[in-house]
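Tip: read the tokens left to right.
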């Protein structure tokens, strides 16, 4: 109705104004797409976009919804003169009509001119391969149906559109894919399937909305990486996922400097859940690769994809095993929660099947669903990770404290502080002040001095020599992967040794042994 009232008022002034607005909108869009977007690509904040798609963004990205809203606000502003308000309203309406009848109607033509409506060579080859395999499968199914009906199958006359020969014809030379191209197609297929599996778990209410958003975003990043850089991009992105992000680093800093544990515990809990979900999804991807990718892309591609999946499975299993050793109680509670969710999902599917088979009625099904929903609600919230409780378990894993009673352990827990070291983090630097010592609750560290190096593992400790001799550090200590440490300050160290002479004897014995061997232990 607004457009109908505006059209009779159009003059050449409005036409000129519309031209100016359209040109300004195009210029602004060009500056954003071809000016700002490349900067974001260079900083790796977004994936690269081809010039053809950028051209489509410039042409088809114009929308008039925001314009008309702003114009309505301007037209209702009494501080503006009536002529200005009328001019803004009419011009905004004309711009909306321009985007609808010019941009929208010609978008398809522009896409055809740029060749964006055509399948790529990879997509054409994949299409032909799928078509050929589908025809073979149709033939097999038809033969089975006819056998079941006791019909002769020696001369089956099948519609050539829906069936074909037993062998898959080789694609034309111009559509033949080499190994790297088939590997790229396979990785894209796996990434897309991975995303679908995450969404499927969300639909089955075994994955929270926040967690599925994070995992689906990771799958999308993998798709973009494969499209831009192939298998190399896939591997690089996987390695980036294994590194701590900025949020984890920030929460770690808060925990170390200010003693704020909440953000760190949330991050660690997220990591637990992500690793467990990925473990299940990767197992399903391995089966999907064998049953759906092998015949489509060839045995060599399927074997290479299996190696890629296996590498990811080992990476996830290693990370999950490390966290489970560090937080055994929490790991068990998370596993129990995952198993309960799986049981609820399977029970729900079984109830649906019984209902479809008319074994149970609607009333019985509704009652079963209510009970199932009550169980699901009971485990909806993730169990909290309590660093204080886990600290007791960490202390118990240090052999040096094995003989302490509960009261002594409680007193020690008040003095010790849990510290999380990130992969390749330098925990101790040679020449630095000896203000604390560390006990390894979980993980491994490498001690480096004068070119020599050796590994300390769970239950070991370091940093004691500087405290005993009152001298600076004499070695670098670097974390191998995520490592959970118990930090004891110099003041608490002296208090502990004064109250526990047996602990002093053990620490001094280890220090003397290291000093005599002179391996560079700190």
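Filled-in amino acids:
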């Amino acid at each position: 109705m607004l457009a109908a009232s505006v059209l009779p008022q159009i003059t050449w002034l409005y036409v000129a104004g519309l031209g100016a607005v359209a040109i300004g909108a195009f210029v602004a869009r060009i500056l954003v797409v071809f000016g700002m977007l490349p900067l974001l690509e260079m900083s790796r904040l977004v994936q690269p976009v081809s010039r053809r798609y950028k051209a489509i963004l410039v042409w088809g990205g114009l929308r008039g919804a925001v314009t008309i809203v702003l114009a309505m606000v301007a037209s209702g502003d009494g501080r503006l003169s009536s002529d200005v308000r009328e001019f803004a309203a009419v011009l905004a309406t004309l711009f909306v009509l321009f985007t609808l009848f010019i941009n929208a109607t010609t978008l398809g033509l522009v896409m055809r001119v740029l060749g964006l409506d055509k399948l790529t060579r990879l997509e054409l080859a994949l299409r032909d391969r799928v078509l050929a395999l589908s025809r073979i499968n149709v033939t097999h199914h038809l033969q089975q149906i006819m056998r079941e009906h006791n019909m002769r199958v020696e001369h089956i006359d099948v519609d050539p559109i829906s069936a074909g020969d037993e062998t898959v014809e080789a694609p034309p030379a111009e559509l033949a894919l080499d190994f790297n191209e088939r590997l790229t197609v396979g990785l894209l297929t796996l990434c897309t399937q991975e995303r679908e599996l995450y969404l499927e778990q969300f639909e089955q209410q075994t994955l929270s909305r926040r967690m599925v958003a994070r995992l689906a975003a990771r799958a999308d990043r993998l798709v973009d990486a494969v499209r831009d850089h192939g298998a190399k991009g896939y591997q690089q992105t996987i390695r980036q996922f294994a590194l701590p992000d900025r949020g984890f680093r920030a929460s770690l800093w808060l925990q170390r400097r200010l003693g704020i544990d909440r953000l760190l515990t949330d991050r660690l809990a997220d990591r637990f859940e992500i690793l467990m979900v990925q473990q299940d999804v990767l197992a399903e991807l391995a089966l999907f690769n064998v049953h759906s990718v092998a015949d489509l892309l060839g045995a060599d591609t399927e074997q290479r994809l299996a190696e890629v999946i296996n590498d990811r499975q080992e990476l996830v299993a290693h990370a999950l095993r490390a966290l489970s050793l560090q937080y055994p109680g929490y790991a068990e509670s998370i596993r129990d929660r995952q198993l309960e969710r799986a049981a609820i999902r399977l029970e729900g599917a079984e109830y649906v099947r019984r209902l479809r088979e008319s074994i149970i009625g609607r009333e019985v099904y509704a009652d079963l669903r209510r009970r199932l929903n009550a169980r699901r609600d009971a485990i909806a919230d993730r169990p909290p990770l309590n660093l204080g409780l886990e600290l007791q378990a960490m202390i118990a894993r240090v052999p040096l404290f094995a003989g302490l009673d509960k009261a002594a352990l409680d007193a020690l827990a008040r003095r010790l502080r849990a510290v999380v070291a990130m992969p390749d983090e330098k925990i101790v630097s040679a020449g630095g002040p000896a203000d604390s010592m560390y006990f390894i609750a979980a993980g491994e560290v490498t001690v480096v001095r004068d070119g020599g190096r050796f590994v300390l593992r769970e239950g070991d400790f370091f940093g004691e020599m500087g405290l005993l001799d009152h001298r600076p550090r004499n070695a670098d200590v670097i974390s191998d992967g995520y490592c959970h440490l118990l930090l004891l300050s110099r003041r608490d160290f002296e208090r502990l040794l004064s109250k526990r002479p047996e602990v002093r004897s053990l620490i001094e014995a280890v220090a003397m042994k290291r000093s005599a061997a002179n391996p560079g232990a700190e």
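Residues 75 and 82 are 8 Å apart (CA to CA). Residues 262-297 form the longest helix (36 residues).
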